[in-house]
Design goal:
- α7 links the parallel β7 and β8.
- The chain has 2 domains: about 200 residues, 3-Layer(aba) Sandwich (Rossmann fold); about 140 residues, Dihydrodipicolinate Reductase, domain 2 (2-Layer Sandwich), CATH 3.30.360.10.
- The chain contains 12 helices and 16 strands.
- By secondary structure, it is of the alpha/beta class.
- It has an 8-stranded mixed sheet with strand order 10-11-12-9-13-14-15-16. A 6-stranded parallel sheet has the order 5-4-3-6-7-8, with helices on both faces.
């Protein structure tokens, strides 16, 4: 049976599934923003801006997170949690205890709530931990998600969700069996610039979308774990290319039906012995929209998307960075009329505001028994499409 279509928050219509009833009833609250209001969408994220009418809580309860893996992205997430009214760091999991002790002092985490990877399962008895944030190499996502679920902890897992479809399915099954929530950290789904683009498309401002161009990549340093396929599961496609893949899906509101792809290794410097250096692919959607996408570990490729419609266009550049996001658009009222309405909106919020919004959302879901907007099934979809893209490029997965 096909997976259900993607649901996205938009900054004009907020959809909240309170009950997950058989008829999947929703409460929809329409909201319209001025340009000034859009610029003010802040570190609390779109959903939190409207917390009183939508997510009112009698107390400021804080969901406690155990951070699994203390690398760069975990540092940003923890700083984001510091700015969150409903989330806090309550435990750390690391293979380097000295590092964990230093970080624990910054976040008020007691030494008794520091775990190694080996003794992680004992976290089951730590009542200050409601959820875990999995920020490990991709090949470890499935193992620690399943272990966390067995310990009764909700899971916020970084993307890519895992290194193959089978692992994704096992993670979903484990969380469902344990009655815990699983959310994949697609931060752009909670970010106002991306939501503004979706809103413009859904409103019909661009008319029928015809094509999308998107890319994201950078020049990866030698020695990084991402260059080891056993740890990463793939090259730039699973790391930053996934942003372009996912964006085409939330921009169109459709699922791709056909794929073509090409990969290459240009720099023969020893970095790309197990993963691709460059990968470009196209996807066709049921409406006929064609998306042209590219990713690389060999050069600087700003994360952007361009959407071309019958009545105008959208250009988000950058679209996927931690801050500095900027949206341009021009569109007309009728097909064939030269675009005259101009949108030029820069998001002034600074890193780690996207991570704050992400934590706010998941903590609210935990506290109010709501379904996350980017559940495990969303990560499974992307992994199934990544598999198809690699197959089209003649690359085998683990």
């Amino acid at each position: 049976m096909p997976l259900p279509p993607l649901k996205l928050l938009s900054n004009r219509h907020v959809t909240v599934d309170f009950h997950r009833t058989r008829d999947r009833g929703f409460i929809v609250v329409p909201m319209t923003f001025t340009r000034r209001e859009f610029a003010k969408l802040g570190a609390l994220g779109f959903a939190a801006r409207f917390a009183p009418p939508l997510f009112a809580q009698t107390t400021q309860r804080q969901t406690g997170y155990a951070i699994i893996g203390l690398g760069r992205i975990a540092d940003i997430f923890m700083r984001g949690v510091k700015d969150s009214p409903n989330s806090k760091v309550t435990a750390l999991v690391s293979g380097h205890r000295d590092k964990a002790l230093r970080i624990a002092a910054d976040y008020g985490v007691p030494e008794s709530s520091i775990y190694s990877y080996d003794d992680f399962d004992s976290i089951v008895s730590n009542k200050t931990v409601d959820a875990v944030y999995v920020a490990l190499p991709n090949s470890m996502h499935a193992d620690f998600t399943i272990r966390a679920a067995k310990a009764g902890k909700h899971v916020l897992c970084e993307k890519p969700m895992a290194i193959n479809v089978g692992e994704c399915e096992s993670m979903i099954a484990a969380c469902k069996s344990a009655s815990v929530k699983l959310m994949i950290a697609y931060r752009c789904h909670y970010e106002s610039t991306n939501l503004k683009a979706v809103d413009l498309i859904r409103s019909g401002a661009l008319g029928q979308v015809q094509a999308i161009e998107t890319a994201f990549g950078f020049n990866e340093r030698a020695g990084e774990w991402r260059l080891d396929k056993k740890l990463s599961g793939g090259g730039p496609l699973v790391d930053v290319g996934i942003y372009s893949l996912n964006a085409t899906r939330y921009l169109t509101g459709e699922e791709p039906v056909s794929f073509s792809a090409f990969s290459s290794v240009i720099d023969q410097d020893g970095r790309f012995t197990s993963v691709e250096e460059n990968l470009s692919w196209t996807m066709k959607f049921p409406s006929g929209v064609v998306a042209s996408c590219a990713t690389t570990y060999g050069g600087w490729m700003g994360g952007f998307f361009k959407v071309h419609g019958a009545k105008g266009w959208i250009d988000a550049d950058p679209a996927f960075n931690y801050d500095g996001l900027h949206l341009h658009a021009q569109y007309s009222t009728d097909v064939g009329e030269f675009p005259h309405t101009v949108v030029d909106e820069a998001n002034p919020q600074k890193n780690p505001y996207q991570f704050t919004a992400q934590a706010n959302h998941f903590s609210n879901c935990i506290q109010n028994n709501l379904e996350p907007k980017t559940p495990g099934e969303e990560g499974l979809r992307d992994m199934s499409y990544i598999t198809e893209i690699y197959r089209a490029a003649g690359i085998s997965m683990l």
